[in-house]
Amino acid sequence: MSTEDVRVRYAPSPTGYPHIGNIRTALFNWLFARHTGGKFIVRIEDTDQSRKVEGAVEQILESLRWLGLDWDEGPEVGGPFGPYFQSERLELYRRYAHELVEAGHAYRCYCSPERLARMHTEMVGRKESVRTYDRHCRELSADEQAKAEAGGVVPVIRFKVPLAGQTTFHDLIRGDITFSNAELDDLVLLKSDGYPTYHLANVVDDHSMQVSHVMRADEWLSSTPRHVLLYKAFGWTPPLYAHLPMILGPDKSKLSKRHGATALLEYRDEGYLPEAIFNFLALLGWSLDDKTDVISREDLVRHFSLDRISRTAAVFDIKKLQWLNGFYIRKLSPSELAERALPFYERQLPQEVERPLDLRYVGQVVTLQRERVKTLAELPENAAFFFVEDLDYPAELLLKGGMSREQARELLTAAAAVLGSVVTFDAAGLEAPLRALAERTSVRTGDLFGLLRVAVTGRTAAPPLFDTMAVVGKERCLKRVRAAVRKLSDTPAA
Ligand code: GLU
Q1: Can you list the positions of beta strands (E) in 389-490?
Q2: What's the CA gap between 281 and 376, in Å, rounded?
Q3: How far is the CA of 153 from the centre of ligand 1 (A)?
Q4: What domains are defined for the chain?
Q5: Are 21 and 217 in contact, with CB atoms under 8 Å apart?
Q6: How far apart are CA 463 and CA 366, in angstroms?
Q7: How many Å lie between the centroid of ligand 1 and the Cα of residue 217?
Q8: Which pLDDT tens digit goes with each residue over 419-472?
Q9: Is the CB of 211 under 6 A from ligand 1?
Q10: Comparing C-alpha atoms, which of 1, 80, 3, 60 is closest to residue 304?
Q11: Per-residue model confidence (pLDDT) at position 464
């Protein structure tokens, strides 16, 4: 097979919102397709009507779009092997299921749910290894069949799994894997409502969509021998298989909600950048070498290979994701960062701040704030003072440095005079005259700057003072320093 013949697919079931693990599968398939110049297909496996979740398809596609995982064939874009929703391909599955019956590889089963439940209880009672079906209908005579049909029972179609022997397949990551056929039940292919099961639809579609490699989570590993037997029954060549390593939480148990494995788009809403998630997911089970943590999308496409997918489980480390996210936040240009952060400021700043916000101003603010943050959502957290007109804080905060009320008031009055005379109101223009003021009044610079910080920001911790003052602007700084003086006068001394 030449590499351009690579055709891989992401085949989600819309039974919930996609999470980190689901999208890691999509990403690996996408990377492999882009690396080889092959095709990336999205196929929606929506044949389980009872487990369908409203809005899940949209979430799946939106997650892919958000990460920039574009698909060559699938929903919205179509393609030569469509439709790409299994619910629109029912005829095909029915035809193939009946074909297997004709060929003697499958049979109609008329067992009622009650009989199956009874069978199950009895097996448990006899301490037999419990199977889902005892093959009761496998060898029904024509008479018995006709009787069941006449009774109006709509049968399911079951696969005739060989009773003995073994099924071996090669997994590109794990090597040869062998299952004994006796362990495999006569699985249902077509349900009585005419819908196929996952196994039938999956195999029929991978074949008819000419999928070359099936790369999926290793929870599907036990389905693969069944699929391989189905390919054989149809007389088709199976695709190549690669089962991706499991993702574990930091406590080494299977990744779950408890570990923060929420829907992927929640990470977006919490202020993670797609670049960071992309980089992070790529390293959940794949590595370039033993040390590279930061790797760009382009480099991943260039270097991605199946032989560097690990056999052992990957560990989801939220600290690493946060670190990477901070890294990518600081890598953005101020204007790009402002654009991405704008919705977070719009959403999180207090009501009183007038919207829409000025993007250029947000750009100045983010430049001061981005040093320490891990997510975009953290940016507006302590930033209200940049945006509101008047500050609300207790007068006592101004006296935190240990100054007397009188001293603080005098100092702030003098500072107001200095600020009023500063011509170039930027960090460099502010520093010299304020240091001179400290010297003139014999106050420690730290005390003066601490006092000014509270007056200008209403907080004791904020980004570098002079830069902050420059962004807040001369007029507002003056107003705030004067307001602080009033605050100290108004409040009676304790
Ligand atoms: N529909 C299955 C899922 O939701 C697809 C498994 C496979 O890739 O074969 O994961």
Answers
A1: none
A2: 19
A3: 31
A4: 3-86+247-315 (3.40.50.620), 89-244 (3.40.50.620), 332-386 (1.10.8.70), 395-490 (1.10.10.350)
A5: yes
A6: 10
A7: 8
A8: 999 999 999 999 999 999 999 999 999 999 999 999 999 999 999 999 999 999
A9: no
A10: 3
A11: 95
